[in-house]
Amino acid sequence: MTTVSTPFYDLPSPTRSRPDADTHTLSIRRPSSVASRSTATRRHRSNRSHNGGASYAPQNEFPNFAHTGDVEIIVAAGGQEKRYMLHRLILARSSGFFDASTSEQWSRAQAQAQGQSAAQGYNGALGRIGEEDEGSQVGNSSANTTQKAFWRYELDFGNQSDEMPMLVQKPLQTSLFGCDQTPRPPPVRNKPPAPSNGFFRSISAMQSAIHMPPTTAQTGQDNDIIRDYDNIFRIFYNYPPSLDAIDITEAYIQCKSLLNLADMYDALEVVGPRIDHHLLQFQGRLWKQIAKYPPSYLKLGYLARSKVIFAEALVHVVGQWPQGAPQLRNIPDIILELIEDKVDELQDLKAKVEGRLFRLTLTTSRGERVSPWNSYLDWNVVSLFRQWLAENTTPPPPPLPKTSGPDSRQSQPPPPPPLNNGRIYRLLGLGGSAYLGHDELKRFLRLRPDDYSRDNTKKFERRMDELKGMARETVKPLMRNFLELDMGRDGGGMGYLTCTRVDEADFPWD
């Protein structure tokens, strides 16, 4: 038989002094197997996952601030869904819509907050029914302590197809104790229930009758809605929006859609600078697009509060007026008043310049104005210049009405299109052979064979160049270019003036 040895304890003697007693320790002799097992014991971490992966931690970053977020937003369109857990403070500072809808006056958040605080008192005493082990209870208690949303918004498309979808505040579902009861997925079934009689027949009939595949246009609209809401929330949190940086046409469409959404939620002051920064990166391509579609970019510049884009488009609109008037019917009155004021200023300036041009004349060697009596050839130079100026700056006369019989009513001819003589002023600003060239002068002199000679032709051209030089100095105020677009010396082929100056006081949002 094997005898078990009893461990001996070396106890200190009670008669020993205190210092001696401190020098002896209590020693326990154990079997070697027990000692080795105690030193090799491995401590298990309580948060180690049993599935071989890292433990799950709730996300606390954009777009899901699970720990600190207090506003839940659900954006669903076309089978797609994006969830956001954001902060009321940031949303209220960025959007007037969220500032008003989450205020104490218009929101039910106070009642939800009281129910949430009341529920926290029961979380420590009440557990879930049907928990299998202690580990699951710890996991559920930690999940329940996570901060829930005090506000909840869902995208509502309304009852009519032409309505704009908008976020609508939804009440939170609460239990008897006031705590949030977020709907959970149904339990997993090992075996699906048996279908009822005629189930598959009804499904087949319904699919053949009403099932229509989504159109490409509808799918594109749904994708645009998801993209716009994601971009506006990214901007609220100082993240760059996801916009096209290559195709300026696509970038304009995306920016316009995002600005309309920001206008609906009263967030233009936050979203506008981002749009302005993104479009200005196109530089030269942007100026050319504005020259092609000035009314569209005028509206976009106004919504984005972009001084550069708005001023660039305004110069084009004023120079072409009233050509772009039909496209600017739905703009605010303050912009229309600004356009009309700038058009009046431009017309006044043109009237002053035209009056000076018609008063231009040549003088003789004695300082007298030329006339048919003192210098007939020089007087012909002035006459030809004035005739050319009047012919090119005056709208043509309306055509005569056509009548088919003595009793028929005379058809009223359509009014002539407005004359935009910007091209004529650019020719005057160039001077030289840009107008009234050598061949035209020779053709004019040949009308009187007695006056046509080589010497008279040279003198006629020299005196015409003097008059063109005076005209070039006269039209300088109209030749100024306040566009970012480089039009070159000849104006880039534009038939209107771009001398409209936009000052800081002219921007309608300041």
Relative strand content: 5-15%
Strand order within the widest sheet?
Answer: 4-3-5-6
Structural class: mainly alpha
Number of strands: 6
pLDDT average, as an integer?
A: 78
Helix content: 40-55%
Low-confidence stretches: 1-42, 44-50, 124-147, 183-192, 199-212
Which value, in Å, is the CA radius of gyration? 43 Å
Order of helices and strands: HHEEEEHHHHEEHHHHHHHHHHHHH
Shape: elongated
Biggest sheet features? 4 strands, mixed
Number of helices: 19
Distance between the termini: 104 Å
Short summary:
The chain is mainly alpha-helical and 510 residues long.
Describe the structure.
The structure is a single chain. By secondary structure, this protein is mostly helical. The chain has 19 helices and 6 strands. It has helices spanning 18-23, 32-39, 88-94, 96-101, 109-123, 134-144, 199-210, 216-236, 248-264, 268-280, 284-292, 294-304, 307-320, 333-358, 376-393, 422-430, 438-445, 454-474, 476-479, and strands spanning 60-61, 64-65, 71-77, 80-86, 151-156, 166-169. The strands form 2 sheets. Strands 4-3-5-6 form a 4-stranded mixed sheet. Strands 1-2 form a two-stranded antiparallel sheet. A hairpin with a 2-residue loop joins strand 1 and strand 2. Helix 11 (284-292) packs across helix 12, helix 12 runs antiparallel to helix 13 (307-320) and helix 15 packs across helix 18 (454-474). The N and C termini lie far apart (104 Å).
